[in-house]
Each structure stands twice: as structure tokens, then as C-alpha cells.
Amino acid sequence: MSESSGNRKTQFYDYHLAAGGKMVPFAGYLMPVQYPLGIMQEHLHTRDHAGLFDVSHMGQVLVRGPNAAAELEKLMPVDVEALAINQQSYATFTSGDGGILDDLIITRWAQDTFFLVVNAGCKEQDVAHLKTHLLDCEINYLDQQSLIALQGLRAVEIITELAPETVALVFMQGCHTQIGDIECYVTRSGYTGEDGFEISVSDDHALALADELLAYDYCQWIGLGARDSLRLEAGLCLYGHDMDEHTSPVEASISWSISKSRRSDGEKAGGFLGADTILGHLANGATKKRVGFLVEGRAPVREGAEIADQQGNLVGVITSGGFGPSLQAPVAMGYVPVGLSAVGTQLTALVRGKPRSITVAKMPLVPQRYYRG
Amino acid sequence: MGHVIYTKDHEWLRIEDNLVTIGVTEFAQEQLGDVVFIELPEVGSELMAGDEAAVIESVKAAGEIAVPIDGVVTMVNETLVDQPDLLNSAPETEGWIFQLTPSEMPDIADFMDAEQYQQYIQDGE
């Protein structure tokens, strides 16, 4: 396979090749979509053991300034000021129209310092957005920093042995620590629905860190293919597919990410881009909504498939779909009118012109197993 | 065993008497990844070369199998309905997909033999 010109490589590129990774262009990087184990086994291995994901293509950004918390609150419907040091939150950068420019994880490193992890495909745009709106903050894109995720039932055994102080972390908390002699920032988070950790490490020490983790025989590299099926079963959105600048957080069914204090009846109501639209959707309901689907039979229903109601009217579209290895059945998510969004609603998805029965299902389709203490 | 020929789309055709059995190659199954569902053609359907005869769904993506010759479908591998992973474990034997009575026997010169096909894969298409 020829190397696509212009695609960047992460620090782990040679490790992926050595592990048999099949490299594909993704968001401007050559990333492993799968290894010889295959997506199905990689997915199951992650849930039951420990999967190591290279997510260094994602953007890591530091925002620093005396009023950083208040400034960041202009861009996201989150109570940033309420974050304790080393606590993190899922967030969205909203647009003036109430759409979603990107989704991210924000972690408070210090009173005046926040660490943001944003999507690879949006990172340049996100940095520009921060620089445009946060004139009094220093915006520092960490381009010498790698990011890996260790996910699954046994991830905790590895991390707490290598960095004992991480044992105190619960879901969505982080700490600066050392693994071996390597300085890193570890958070108890991830995007697989499993307990797990994300580790930010300088590029110089990235390979040494991977060596420490891969020394455990039950720790395996896992590709983007399984990352997608894991997050799909866990009911988690993929930016650019399950939400984008044309969907509000309410429509995307992530209203839980809007802090109480930023809602209409909160003490810091509104004050973020698109607040009128988004708080309007919260108060009056939106017209469409993201829901999960179970699919009859074994044929996957994939992104782009149209959704029809019982009368055959086209009512929506599938935004993510595939086969769920843990569920051993196809799983999908998509948008439907609110009136057709109740759990149990029977609809059909058109796959190559043929109707397939789908049922609105409660997400996550596979229970999340985050460690909440 | 019959005579086996290969297409550039990584299908194999086994010619026995006046029947042609069609499946995908080992190389194709590796590219597809874990197969989870196969949409088979209907027995009795008349297909023209280039028609979509079957769809193979893997965890990752859907792949279409175009029929390389004209003919009528005489048999499909129903085992694949319950065991689609046969396509991964035995693509060139038990994982055959369908059998055709061709309108006319394929001209071997239009296809590759095993050696030519191996060369074709090595050359990277």
C-alpha cells in the first residue's frame, strides 16, 4: 500500500506496523484501522481485557489565563468555574446558531489552566475558535504531545500497578504522575464505555510509555475499527456523523452535558454561543432527536440509510451503524422526529432499497462500566 | 475438483460439467475482515455479467459481489445464513456463495489461473 502523501504519522507509527496494523488515512493521519486479530476480536479483547489505542491524532490544547474559566463558559454550556482541579467534563463548542462545532473533554489543571482534548478533524478550527473568542487567554496547542487510551476491564490493573496514585481516580478525574520514570497526565476516562484511562505524554517518551503498557501480555493494540464499534455500543456520538454544526446538543440527545447552572433557571443561565436556540430546545423540545436502534436480523444498517415510518414516509436517517461484537447483533443510531423517538417505536431502515425492521432502543445498548468509586 | 479461474475483483469460479460455483478468494476475505452477514441471490434469478449477485457485510463495511458471467442461479450456500464466518475460515471451499448455470461457458482467456492471480495480488492490483 502506498503512503498517501500529506498524511502525518504519530510517534507510534512503526509500532503499529510491527504489530501488523493496517494503516489508513484518517483526519490527516495514517492510523491503524485494525490489527491481525480483526475488529471483532479486538473489540471483545478490549471489553474483557485491556486495549491500547493510539489517539495521538486528537488535539491537545492548554488554555491559560486569570479568567480562563469564565472565558471558556462563553463557548460551551458547561459550568467550567465549578470544575475542581483535576476534574474533567464532557463539553461541546457550540455555534451561534446553536449547533455543535466539536465535542471535547475539558480538564482543570490549575485555577487558571485548562487542558482540552478535541477531535482530530476539528483541531485547527477549534484552536482558531479559541483564539478568536478568548482574547485574554493564552492558547497553547500541544504539538509535541502524544495521547494513548488504555481501556477495558483490566486497564486498572496495569495503570494502578505502574502509577499507584491513580488508584484514587474515579471516572472523569485525572492527575499528573509518573509511569516508570515518565512524566504524564493520566485521566480515568475514554470513549469505549469501559473503565479505562487516557494518558497524555510528551512525544519523546511516547514509545517508552507504550513499552511499559505492552509488557502486560493481556494488553493489545486496538485499531480505529474496534474503537468505532465500542463507542457505538456504548451510545457515544462520533462528531461529524452523529452530530455536527446543524444539530444542537438537545437534538443530539446530549442535554446531560449542559450544566444545570447554565440552563434557563440556573444562576448563570445562557451566556454561551447559541444559548437562545439551545435553551429554547431544552424548554420547548426540538423537532428531531438522536436515538439508538436495535436491528432485526444480522444485516448491519449503516450511516446514510434512510429511515421510514410504518406508512413508508421517509422520516430520518441513520448516522452511525454497524455490527456490535459484544451484542452479536447490528447496532445503529440516527435522527428521527421527536414523535417517533420513544423507546420501542417500530420503524424501518432502507438498506440497498430493502426495508429492515429497526426498533428505537434505550442507549447505551451495552451497559457502560465506568468506575465511579 | 473442476477447473478454477479468478477475476480481478477477487472472486473464484469453479467450472464443473456445465455449472459454475462462485466465491471470494482468501485475499478478499482478509480485506473484508470479520463477515457478519451475507445477502444471497435468489435461486432461479437470471443474472447478467456485472449484476450485483450478493452482498457481504463485514463488521467494517459492505462489499458487493458482481457476477462475472451471464447465467441463472441454481443453488446458494444456505449455510452462510447462520455461519457467515465460513467466508473467513474457508472462503475457497465451504464458504462458496452461489452456483450458476451459465448462458455459455466462460472463456478461460478472460480470467486468471491460480498462478496469474497470485502474481496479480503481489503486484498490488
Could you explain how this protein is built, in words?
The complex is a heterodimer of chains A (373) and B (125). In chain A, helix 2 packs across helix 7 (224-233). In chain A, the strands form 4 sheets. In chain A, strands 10-11-12-9-3-13 form a 6-stranded mixed sheet. A 6-stranded antiparallel β-barrel of chain A has the order 14-17-16-15-18-19. Chain A has a 5-stranded antiparallel sheet with strand order 5-6-7-4-8, with helices on one face. In chain A, strand 11 and strand 12 (196-202) form a beta hairpin. Chain A is globular, with a radius of gyration of 20 Å. Chain A is 18% helix and 33% strand. Among the domains of chain A are: 13-58 and 144-233, 2-Layer Sandwich (Gyrase A, domain 2), CATH 3.30.1360; 287-363, Elongation Factor Tu (Ef-tu), domain 3, CATH 2.40.30.110. With 373 residues, chain A is α+β, with helices and mostly antiparallel strands. Chain A is built from 8 helices and 19 strands. Chain B is α+β, with helices and mostly antiparallel strands and 125 residues long. Chain B is built from 4 helices and 9 strands; from the N terminus they run βββαβββββααβα. Chain B has helices at 26-32, 79-82, 86-89, 114-122; strands at 3-6, 11-16, 19-24, 35-39, 46-47, 52-58, 62-66, 71-76, 98-102. In chain B, strands 1-2-3-9-8-5 form a 6-stranded antiparallel sheet. A 3-stranded antiparallel sheet of chain B has the order 4-6-7. The longest helix of chain B is centred in the last third of the chain and has 9 residues, at 114-122. The interface between A and B is medium-sized, with 20 and 14 residues.
